[in-house]
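Write out this protein's structure.
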Amino acid sequence: MSKIEKTFPENFLWGGAVAANQLEGAYNVGGKGLSTADVSPDGILYPFDETMTKLNLYHDGIDFYHRYKEDIALFAELGFKCFRTSIAWTRIFPNGDELEPNEEGLKFYDDLFDEMLKYNIEPVVTISHYEMPLGLVKNYGGWKNRDLIGFYEQFAKTVLERYKDKVKYWMTFNEINVVLHAPFTGGGLVFEEGENKKNSMYQAAHHQFVASALAVKACHEINPEAKIGCMIASMLTYPYTCNPEDAFAAMEQDRKTLFFSDVQARGIYPGYMKRYFKENDITIVMEEGDEDILKQYPVDYIGFSYYMSFVASTAPEDLEKADGNLLNGVKNPYLQSSEWGWQIDPKGLRTVLNQLYDRYQKPLFIVENGLGAVDVVEEDGSIQDDYRIDYLHAHLKEAKEAIADGVDLIGYTSWGPIDLVSASTAELKKRYGFIYVDRDNEGNGTFNRVKKKSFDWYKNVIATNGASLD
């Protein structure tokens, strides 16, 4: 029997991933408008309130807007082949419904992408990442309103045309399925008393599906060589026992995520969701032509985040609970947890990769994976983050196994290669980076950048194309 080769592809896209609203800062610079992120002081689970005036850490971020050249140089030193970021919608259309884009905002991303390309770093760009103009929430009701499709399409066409010679990899919405778990963050949704929230969330999702398909159409027309994908928050679920009821509950939980990739990759609403809608009094209003649009313009690849797995039980009352980013559920007794209660499951990444590739037969891209932790600066100024190295090492080894399984994996971008403001908690003490940023939860610090121990480790992983993981 011949030995199975466990190697990453020759042109594998190694890099890191961020979101504009979590690191750029400069919230009122260059004509930028207020976004939903700017009024979410306690992270993505915070419900919107008209009285919100508190400025959060997003306003300064890590001042990437003014320091991006310094940071891109560090990414180049790491050997990045790509860098995933997003375009702040409010830099391009400050209120969301303007007829003409803001040239100063467009120029910023021209300069950013040029700086990346100077170092042969491929931009991987999310069009909408947990941020939308607050004006579209206040004046239109967010993604519940079909008008948002047109505003998003204008935004997408504007950036796709502007950066057609600089960006080859796009994604339409970050973690699009999060509209079910954090509806304000994912869809700018504000609910009225007595409103059928599930119906509103799935209606908003439908509008995003159509908008996503129209962005795919525009991308292929503007630059046929470009690739545009969806992006889901992967939430692998295990049955707590071998009771068939638990196994079915786990499948149903996974389908809540897979529904979003099913529609964007296959172009149809699956039968299991049609049944779910009937049984939960959910009526999706579709206009003539919507289903044709979804069918004609599926995504080119599946991007996804992977941080943890979950457990489903049909009798969870007496079982220990696990706290996580978006979902609280039954604790898996076989797994360790991070400081924030996220259960660490490297093998689950291999499972997800196989699950998605078996289902869609489309290229996959791990666009978020990482460990949020409290880092300590030692007396000598070093940061010994071996726990982060261990986490990433274990996950990347499983990604390599999945490639040997036959999965077409095109890239890996670790989440937060430089410390940034956490989306889930709007704090800076939850750090992900290979690069430390001197900034704390109270907004104190110099913004100075310091390499952690993991910096050299990841640099070596990239330089050896993953061979150092063995």
